[in-house]
Amino acid sequence: MKLAVIPARGGSKRIPRKNIKDFCGQPMIARSIEAARISGCFDCIIVSTDDEEIAAVARAHGADVPFMRPPELSDDHTGTIPVIAHAIKWQQQQGEKPHLICCIYATAPFVAAEDLNRGLEAIELTQADYAFSVTSYPFPIQRAVRITEAGRVEMFAPENFTTRSQDLEEAYHDAGQFYWGQANAWLSGQPIFSGNTVPVILPRHRVQDIDTPEDWTRAEMMFRVMQAPA
Fold first, then answer.
1. What CATH number does the domain containing 203 carry?
2. Is the pLDDT of residue 55 over 80?
3. Which candidate, 146, 127, 129, 124, places its Cα nearest to that of 181?
4. How far is the C-alpha of 44 from the C-alpha of 66, rounded, in Å?
5. pLDDT score recorded for residue 11
6. Model pTM greater than 0.85?
7. Which residue range forms the structural domain that includes residue 28?
8. Sheet with 172-182, edge to edge strand ranges
9. What are φ and ψ of residue 112, in 5° steps?
10. 62 contact partners, CB below 8 Å, separation of at least 6
11. pLDDT digit string (tens) for 159-205?
């Protein structure tokens, strides 16, 4: 069984109700549900939430909400892995046997069905613990600078000052969209960032974290540009 789990806690503080806030004409979470459905990857798509309003929106857009997430897994400090493990255990208690589980974030409006399929193909081909979306940094991280307490600038790695940008190794970061994982990896708490994880590389123009109102505005602008006729 291939299972999609979309975590959607109700207590967002920086952008209140962001999981169901209107994003370019649809509740944000609806876009993740739609991508999961279109992908054809999943036998079941569930939303893990502690919030009745989010549950109702999720059901209206085609996801299952078979349980309400317990309070101990709904605070600001609970990580993704325990939430997904809880959903897997619930499915197992119902007699199901999910073996590949994909966590899809509810605030990932650029997640695409074809990328979910690429992640599935990668984890099945390599038998890795996880496969997740990454994208490259737009500037070499080896030449990053910090601002000191004195208001001055200093390099994190001053030895790279004279190295040409094109000679530095390219670096990647979590794209914050989806995480395919083996059931035993989720259940055992295996870290996602580990030596037995494979990347699914996304172009930078389809990646945007949404943590602040500024992020939200930028994401809507990006989305509208990508939807505009060529």
1. 3.90.550.10
2. yes
3. 129
4. 11
5. 79
6. yes
7. 2-134+173-227
8. 44-48, 2-7, 100-104, 172-182, 130-136, 197-201
9. -120, 145
10. 33, 34, 37, 45
11. 999 999 999 999 999 999 999 999 999 999 999 999 999 999 999 99
